[in-house]
Specification:
The chain has twelve helices and ten strands. It has helices at residues 36-40, 47-69, 88-105, 114-120, 122-125, 165-175, 182-190, 213-225, 231-256, 272-284, 294-297, 302-315; strands at 5-10, 15-22, 26-34, 78-84, 109-113, 133-138, 143-150, 153-159, 261-265, 288-290. Strands 3-2-1-4-5 form a five-stranded mixed beta sheet, with helices on both faces. It is globular and about 60 Å long. The mean pLDDT is 96. The structure holds 5'-O-[(R)-(carboxyoxy)(hydroxy)phosphoryl]adenosine and zinc ion. Zinc ion binds next to helix 4.
Length: 332
């Protein structure tokens, strides 16, 4: 009999996702229903539209993940949902669904930190990753360097002072009229461009914090002054500046903290150039890189299942009075 079966639900932003994960590492099923097409016409996520779409999608997505996993609800040991950070209306849909199912099925419930989920996504494919390691967490809402010293024990070394890396991708793409979300579009466009424009590398030599707002403005000013420059070259040059800053700081943090290796997580970790640059830089510094599959970098519920099982082993279940918290931070 399989033990440690977690039904995990993720609705913090614009993906409605559910997964069944055994013992925090074996993914039996992972279903992600993206709302990207709904939000694309507005150029970004509209919170009220996102919560309504989650309400429509949550039941079919949970039903599908149970069917794909080949299990019945009575086989489950735990029901988990992301409780923050994220959009409050979106979070409430997943948390309410998970608590209701836990109550009706008489299973324990656990509320999970979305960022801890991203930190645990690498363990789905590599459960025995050695610690301490440095994790670069880069998404649409966050850019941070975290040292995982032991399981469930973190130190946030640095974070963005303004725009998140994904946000900078999205804003540059929007300015160039390329569409939403900007990350994958710029990633693809950059492959046929030349990184010949020298954009600034903000704070590259200073500490572990990041700042991307000035770089975004530099790109916009350049485009205004050089309207004939190819989008491909702008995309490649902007991306090179972002990746240079991310990789330089990550490697420096890993060396300073005597980490064994480096992992990446969050939507921007799906970026081809960032993945390539981390794989290239780590061995030169005696660091072990781990790059998760793209589907575990962008928002998904399997990573929530991985974090849920770890937390449950350590802290036990959450109280059913536990609510959603849009401003939840990484527990340090
Ligand atoms: O982690 P995620 O799916 O959702 C948040 O929690 O924010 O990240 C979404 C972000 C968006 O800003 C999107 O443009 C960016 O990740 N992104 C990428 C790529 N794929 C997604 N950025 C750069 N290159 C990509 N291939
Ligand atoms: Zn995320």
């Amino acid at each position: 009999m399989t033990r440690g079966l977690v039904l995990a639900i993720e609705t913090s932003c614009d993906e409605t996702a559910a997964a069944v994960v055994a013992e925090g590492k074996h993914v039996l099923s992972s279903v992600v229903s993206s709302q990207v097409d709904i939000h694309a016409r507005y150029g970004g996520v509209v919170p009220e539209v996102a919560s309504r779409a989650h309400v429509d999608l949550i039941t079919p997505v949970i039903a599908q993940t149970l069917i794909e996993a080949g299990i019945e609800h009575h086989d489950l040991d735990l029901v988990a949902a992301t409780r923050g950070p994220g959009l409050i209306g979106s979070l409430l849909v997943g948390v309410s669904a998970a608590k209701s199912l836990a109550l009706v099925w008489d299973k324990p419930f656990i509320g999970v930190n979305h960022l801890e989920g991203h930190l645990y996504s690498s363990f789905l494919e590599e459960p025995d990753l050695e610690l301490p390691m440095i994790i670069l967490l880069v998404s649409g809402g966050h850019t941070m360097l975290v040292s995982m010293d032991e399981h469930l024990t973190y130190r946030v070394l640095g974070q963005t002072l303004d725009d998140a890396a994904g946000e900078a991708y999205d804003k540059v793409a929007r300015y160039l009229g390329l569409g939403y979300p900007g990350g994958p579009i710029i990633d693809k466009l950059a492959t046929s461009g030349q990184a010949k424009i020298s954009f600034p590398r903000p704070m590259i030599g200073e500490g572990y914090d990041f700042s991307f707002s000035g770089l975004k403005t530099a790109v916009i000013n350049y485009v205004r002054k050089n309207p004939d420059e190819l989008d491909e070259n702008i995309a490649a040059s902007f991306q090179e500046a972002v990746v240079d800053v991310l990789v330089t700081k990550t490697i420096r943090a890993a060396k300073d903290q005597n980490a064994v290796g480096v992992c990446i997580g969050g939507g921007v970790a799906a970026n081809s150039r960032l993945r390539e640059a981390i794989l290239d830089a780590c061995p030169k510094e005696g660091l072990k890189p781990f790059i998760p599959s793209r589907s575990y970098c962008t928002d998904n519920a399997a990573m929530i299942g991985a974090a849920a099982w770890r937390r449950f082993q350590h802290d036990g279940p959450s109280n059913l009075a536990t609510g959603a918290d849009p401003n939840l931070r990484i527990p340090e």
